[in-house]
Amino acid sequence: MRNTFKVLFYIKKNAPLRNGNVPIMGRITINGQRTQFATRLSVGPNQWDVCMGRVAGRSNAALRINEQLSNIHFHIERCYNTLFYDQAYVTPMMVKEMYFGVSHNNETLVAFFRQHNEEFKRMVGITRSKTTYYKYRCVCRHLADYISDKYGRKDLSFKELDQEFLTGFHSYIAKECAHKKNTTWIYMIALKHILMLARGKGYLSKDLFANYKLHSEHVSRNYLSMQEINKLMQYECDNSTLQLVRDAFLFSCFTGLSFVDVRALTMQNIQEVNKQLWITTTRRKTGSEVSVRLFAVPYNILLKYAPQARDERIFDLPSNGWCNICLEKIVSGAGILKPITFHAARHTFATTITLSQGVAIETISKLLGHKNIRTTQIYATITHSQLDGEMERLSKRINSLCRDWTPADADDAGVKLM
């Protein structure tokens, strides 16, 4: 693929200097990517020729500035050519940093990863989630341990990385750290993102993940049937914490709210519309607006835990991990023989509460706060009872259309099951 490299000079009219001149700026563009830089030169705004990208006129001052701009252009082009023949993949930022003498020879992977995590941490609660921050921190720790075990060092420079390094780390987190296939896949995707950022800054010359295949495996998503929900509602919990977790889980089963959204719920999220109570909230994960009608079961749970202050949390839940430990005890005590986590409540809402009752997939997607209906289709499993009902209705329709026909050699004894 041919690179489109260009250097353009322009004036910054909206930032005049004290003497009335305006700064002359430079812009490097490569394949649609661009970056700006200051030339440390200035000119009167009326002296600039926009079409030429140079100072107009033949005065000594104009000639001197234009000569300096030509020198800058020459050196930037030389930096570009050096990088292009050395690394093939070149970004405008790489050219700019080389021109200004910034060296990346000593950039290392773990140090870069940790710096990324520190910047990410500062945005947690603003535009980033704590869960994603924990994921990056965990991958970085595994990476440091792998480099220590495999290479006997604390870090590796980006120039030392190759596909053998990726293969080794992939095997390490799968075997040595004993992570399941999907967890390993998620961790490798995180590393791929970090290497992509490093490549964009010019620390890495090639895409190590090119032609490197990463696969996840399909996981059967557990949910509760209506019979199991009734078992859970009738189960008497041993203590107040188990009871709180059980009630919050049931609340999620009937509303589709995730753990983090249930935990953050306050009475301010409960609104009356047309004499009916609705939950109106914003999903913490996607920022999507969600409105869910309060049915009888979640309404009674709400009455039990409703706080006095409208801005106080309704469910004072422990951490998600601790809630899942509690749920193991609860479902076992209730005689439910399947592994259940708090997130299974959303699957239950999508499958048992809505889809199996004939709710359209588009409506379920809206209730769950999904931005893409394909995400909803992952949750919405066709239950056996729903399939059986659909087949029964189809059977009656087909039989009514074909009721007058029987095969000539039909066995009077009927069909015998093997």
Task: Please outline the helices and strands.
Layout: E1 5-11, E2 22-30, E3 33-43, E4 48-49, E5 54-55, H1 60-87, H2 92-99, H3 109-122, H4 130-151, H5 163-176, H6 181-200, H7 226-234, H8 240-255, H9 259-263, E6 270-273, E7 276-282, E8 289-293, H10 296-305, H11 320-333, H12 344-354, H13 361-368, H14 373-379, H15 384-401
Antiparallel strand pairs: 1-2, 2-3, 4-5, 6-7, 7-8
Describe it for me?
The protein has 418 residues and is mainly alpha-helical. Helix content is 49%, strand content 11%. The protein has 3 domains: 5-99, no CATH class; 109-200; 226-385, Intergrase catalytic core (hpI Integrase, Chain A, Orthogonal Bundle), CATH 1.10.443.10. It is built from 15 helices and 8 strands. Helix 1 (60-87) packs across helix 2 (92-99), helix 4 (130-151) crosses helix 6 (181-200) and helix 8 packs antiparallel against helix 10 (296-305). It starts with a strand and ends in a 17-residue tail after the last helix. 26% of the residues are buried.
